[in-house]
What we know:
Oligomer: single chain
Number of strands: 6
Low-confidence stretches: 62-67
Radius of gyration: 20 Å
Structural class: alpha+beta
Amino acid sequence: MISCPNCGLDNPDDAVSCDCLYDFRGNDGSSVVLTTAPTLEGFRITHHKGIVTAECVFGMSIFADLFASVRDVIGGRTKSTQRTLRSAREVCLRELRREAFSLHANAVIAVDLDYSEISGGGKSMLFLVASGTAVLVEALDHNP
Length: 144
């Protein structure tokens, strides 16, 4: 049995995480739960660790900008821009998890994503900020 250092619960030797969401695998923060909701269903917030943010800036290539401009005129979707947006979101949320994990949190509630474009001098960049409240949660006891 593995005793959770976070809540003290005994877990099987092959457990990946505890009911309190503590991750036994390592310290990359990948197990930190993210939600846009102000609470996490089935869990009780035991500690508010603080506000966490992650900022990411991605450059758009000149070719992507050129094709996006053409698409603006004729209509349609630009796959390169969509890929950049998706990549920016994934990277920023991964960084948000790491920030929360560094505060010993196992969840981030009220996650918000704000996108902005920075352009000038023929260059265009995508700026993304992810923010939320890092919290420590534990599973609600559903036993009578």
